Amino acid sequence: MTNETDDALEFLRTRGSGALAAKMGIEFTEFTVQRSVATMPVEGNTQPAMLLHGGAYVVLGESLGSMAANLFAGPGKLAVGIDINATHTRSATEGIVTGVCTPIHLGRSLTVHEIAVTDEQGRRCSTIRITNLIKDASTG
């Protein structure tokens, strides 16, 4: 018998996390409805000042939040992002950052997740909030 974690990891393997997430080096390390974690390297995702690009934080957050929402939505459903915002409070300049995604609201038609992104020293660099709409997968 499989458990929730095994089922979630199989969902992630089957569905994939998308070409952009792969290009940016995002790797999921934990994946459940209640908590998802992924890492991303700073190198290759910087802006001209050699700081992690603000948009890279958002891509990490959206990857985590959207995948978690789709896992929650279940078979035959599709979760699509309808709102995202980010507040950057520190700049990562090297190493990896880690995003931890937790649900704020898991409803029938909407989910809201918060993603806290920290550097290797555990300092928060960005806080992202994403809202996803859950709809029938057949409606695209």
From TrEMBL:
What Pfam families does its record include?
A: 4HBT
What keywords are annotated for this sequence in UniProt? Answer: Hydrolase
Q: Which SUPFAM superfamilies match?
A: Thioesterase/thiol ester dehydrase-isomerase
Specify the Thioesterase domain's residue ranges.
Answer: 52-125
Q: Which InterPro entries does the entry link to?
A: HotDog_dom_sf, PAAI_dom, Thioestr_dom
Keyword Magnesium listed? The answer is no
Q: What superkingdom heads the lineage?
A: Bacteria
Similarity comment text for this entry = Belongs to the thioesterase PaaI family.
Q: Quote the protein name from its UniProt record.
A: Uncharacterized domain 1-containing protein
Instruction: Give the organism, scientific name.
Output: Plantibacter elymi
